[in-house]
Amino acid sequence: MRQPFAITGGGTARYLLLGTDLLWITASFYLSYRLLPLYRPWLRTESVDPGRFSEHAWLLLLILPLWVGLAAQAGLYGRTRLAWWRVVQRTLRTTAFGLAGLAVVIFAAKLVGVSRLILFGFCLLYIPVSLAGRWLVLWLLALRRAHIYNVPRVLVVGTRERAREFIRRARQAEDADYCLVGCLDPEPWPTGATVEGVPVLGSTEAMDSVLTREAVDLVVFALPLALVPNASERIAAAVELGLRVVVLPDFQLHQAGYSMADPRVSVEFFLGQPVAVVSTVRWSQAFRLTKRVMDLVGAAVLLVLLSPLLAAIAVAIKLSDPGAPVLYRWRVLGRNHRPITSWKFRTMVPDADRRKADLASANEMNGPVFKMRNDPRVTRLGRWLRRYSLDELPQLVSVLRGDLSLVGPRPPFPEEAARFAFWQRRKLSVKPGLTCLWQINGRNEIRDFDHWVQLDLEYIRRASLGLDCWILLKTIPAVLRGRGAY
Question: What separation, in Å, do the N-terminal and C-terminal C-alpha atoms of the chain show?
Fold first, then answer.
């Protein structure tokens, strides 16, 4: 059974704490060895060369399993939301029992060559090192969870006991944060009603409108599907948007026209129980993690290499229009309708947004997106920047922040997304990017928005690291030629 990327948390944190604790144990032991010449005189013992580290390193074969086992038994890995006084208490107890266990083993095996000072130094150092290391790990995890993409937004279908139990479990989940958007029920509820403090947004008949209005990552059916009118249509609509659909036991997927043999269906663990998940966006955790690492490295390297060019462009824009800002604040929609703010070099006159409505009749794109070849709002310098996509370079900062990816569908403005056809909204199911299949297939030469969206959906369907690298390589000549830019 696969562990879904979007709803993991506790297991990842526990493994991270355990893995880093192995590092803190090893580091404390090595520090104790290195500091031995310093505290020998302080203890008024004979100053003797401790020898090479390899002569003492074998002790880690005893210390690592002993300390990790005692720490696990004390619950230092099983729960990460412990009060700090409890963490200190359990760390002290682990160290005391560990030292006692080492003493028994050394005495029983008559290991006379073992340096007692290194062991005592290790125990004294392990306590502050492990506490500082734990704080660092938990701080990094909290920083990661604080990002808008890392808190799954959940819509619950159901209001009765199964739904209430799910809401309670979601709130009590160890090391996982969920935003419960609201509940739906087959029966109408009065305005302002809540279930366990979660607002009831209406009946299941309104599910499509809720999904297009609210930012939702996960739809959880917490009631028998036989009670949901048109359950198959409701699940199909969510799946078409690229959302994950969780059906709590008993599965009853046959009520919605699905079977466990369907490639869109998998059994996964969610909040400690097996559930049936229906989804067509099958991006593995390994792929997402590797893609994120590639984004971080690629964006950081490009920002460093292109920093002189960025500075030159900023100066050129300022000189061309001293009273106007250099950057344009770009407010668009990210994954699953999340609003994000990015920055581009300003290529238009300062009041361009106010003048956009006056040019609506000149739109050359068939669909909700506005594109105009000879847009009068574009400045002379801006036209050159757009030709070679240089105005996009400040968005590399948004890639570092995690709002955007190097490769992914182009993000729409909120007013554009409001006019999307239902099937077109599926392009919002993944993190948007700076370049994608649309960019390397002609950009604005593609006049039909349906064709544009079909290219984005093809990317979502075929996504892989190989495809990302191919798109990035193809983007370079496409940008240098300036094809389809205006």
Answer: 48
User: Whole-angstrom Cα distance, residue 255 to residue 229?
Assistant: 10
Using CA atoms, how far apart are residues 39 and 51, in angstroms rounded to an integer?
16
Choose among 105, 106, 124, 101: nearest CA to 28. 124
pLDDT at position 182 is 93
Other Cβ atoms within 10 Å of 449 Cβ, number:
19
Tell me the pLDDT band of 74, cut-offs 50, 70 and 90.
confident
Reply yes or no on whether the pLDDT at 106 is more than 50. Answer: yes
* 386-to-304, 354, 389, 447, 449 alpha-carbon distances in Å: 21, 20, 5, 18, 20
Q: How far apart, in whole angstroms, are the C-alpha atoms of residue 409 and residue 398? A: 15
pLDDT at 247: 87
Beta bridge pairs of residue 185: 203
Tokens in use for 21?
Answer: 């604790």
Domains in the chain (CATH in brackets) are 5-145 (no CATH), 151-278 (3.40.50.720), 285-481 (no CATH)
Mean pLDDT for 299-304 is 92
> What sections of 367-464 are H helices per DSSP?
380-387, 396-401, 414-417, 437-440, 449-462
